[in-house]
Amino acid sequence: MSSVDKELLLDKLEYWCIKLKEYTPLSDLDAAYLSGGIVVVTELAQQIREGRYDKGAPSSFNPIGTQSGRFSCDSPNTSAKPTETRIVNGHVLYNADDFKHMTAEELELDWIAHLVLDGGLDICKACGEGESGLDNPCKPRGNNNG
């Protein structure tokens, strides 16, 4: 990477870091994504400054974003194993079959997939209720009857 390219890229990364810091999160999930984005941008800028992307630099390191969490963006989705659909108090729960059509990148970005596949949590497809609310009857989203 030439020094001009490096400086241009570092300027862009600094710009995005500032913009991420200016954004006001609307939820805890937004705040988590923003925080993660700031970390990734900051670490990438540090790696560029250290010369990890310079021509001739050893490539034995794992660049940010190619392998995070459970799913690798470089491999097909082989983690979702079929399971039977479970119904609890009218709640139809997500299972691995619901995520088998997704690519590794889609799985990486889908927080419900992480909660169900990684965390083993029961979540209702219709109302979004988690384990603590499954004792109550299902009230599907958009239902204005009560």
Question: Could you characterize the architecture of this molecule?
Answer:
This protein has 146 residues and is mainly α. The chain folds into two domains: 62 residues; 65 residues, no CATH class. The protein is 38% helix and 5% strand. It contains four helices and four strands, in the order ααββββαα. The strands form two sheets. The chain has a two-stranded antiparallel ribbon.
What value does the average pLDDT take?
Answer: 77
> Could you give a short account of the major beta sheet?
2 strands, antiparallel
Report the order of strands and helices: HHEEEEHH
* pLDDT < 50 runs, ≥5 residues: 60-82
Number of DSSP-assigned strands: 4
Radius of gyration: 21 Å
Compact summary:
The protein has 146 residues and is mainly alpha-helical.
Q: How do the helices and strands line up, and which of them pair or pack?
A:
Layout: H1 3-22, H2 28-49, E1 67-68, E2 71-72, E3 87-88, E4 91-92, H3 104-109, H4 111-118
Antiparallel strand pairs: 1-2, 3-4
Helix pairs in contact: 1-2
Descriptive keywords:
mainly alpha; 2 domains; single chain; 146 residues; 4 helices
